[in-house]
């Protein structure tokens, strides 16, 4: 499905939205900053902007869209701080973090594949706040109409 067709589906589903920012993988966002944040997680950070104009969906060229792509490829402003903290932890601390990240990835996969709310609740019982937020976002992504 091309991005304009994806935007059309999103507009059909969200009748009050008149402008969408669509990432290269077809994820639609009414808010530009949300689209930018999500696009940073993709290999291609391109974002297309579509507007509802009457009964038609039109791609809009924004000057800032090109700047957005450049901003998406900019280095993480917190990278130096992350590196400093990892060095302070030493190799065992870095291994602990890597293990925690793997556990979170495993949890997210299980949440995405859960069939019922009860299964999701069981998986999330006793998890940290950040794990709950990540899992919630993952579950929303699964439940969002494609």
Please tell me about this protein's structure.
- The chain has 146 residues and is of the alpha+beta class.
- It has helices spanning 3-13, 32-39, 63-72, 79-113, 117-124, 129-143, and strands at residues 19-23, 28-29, 47-53, 56-60.
- α4 packs across α6 (129-143).
- It contains six helices and four strands; from the N terminus they run αββαββαααα.
- 60% of the residues lie in helices and 13% in strands.
- The protein has a four-stranded antiparallel β-sheet with strand order 2-1-3-4.
**Major sheet size, sense and barrel closure:** 4 strands, antiparallel
Low-pLDDT runs of 5+ residues are: none
- When the domains are counted, the total is 2
The geometry reads as: flat
Q: In percent terms, what proportion of residues is strand? A: 5-15%
Average pLDDT for all residues = 76
Number of helices: 6
Order of helices and strands: HEEHEEHHHH
Radius of gyration: 19 Å
Strand order of the largest sheet: 2-1-3-4
What is the helix content?
A: 55-70%
Distance between the termini: 10 Å
Number of strands: 4
Structural class: alpha+beta
In brief:
With 146 residues, the chain is of the alpha+beta class. The chain is 60% helix and 13% strand.
Topology:
Elements: H1 3-13, E1 19-23, E2 28-29, H2 32-39, E3 47-53, E4 56-60, H3 63-72, H4 79-113, H5 117-124, H6 129-143
Antiparallel strand pairs: 1-2, 1-3, 3-4
């Amino acid at each position: 499905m091309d991005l304009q067709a994806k935007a059309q589906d999103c507009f059909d589903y969200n009748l009050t939205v008149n402008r969408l920012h669509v990432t290269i993988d077809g994820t639609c966002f009414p808010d530009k900053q949300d689209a930018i944040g999500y696009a940073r997680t993709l290999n291609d950070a391109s974002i297309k902007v579509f507007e509802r104009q009457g009964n038609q969906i039109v791609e809009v060229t924004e000057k800032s869209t090109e700047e957005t792509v450049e901003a998406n490829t900019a280095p993480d402003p917190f990278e130096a701080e992350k590196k400093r903290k990892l060095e302070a932890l030493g190799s065992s601390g870095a291994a602990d973090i890597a293990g925690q990240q793997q556990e979170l990835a495993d949890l997210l996969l299980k949440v995405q594949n859960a069939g019922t709310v009860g299964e999701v609740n069981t998986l999330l019982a006793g998890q940290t706040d950040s794990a709950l937020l990540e899992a919630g976002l993952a579950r929303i992504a699964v439940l969002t109409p494609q």
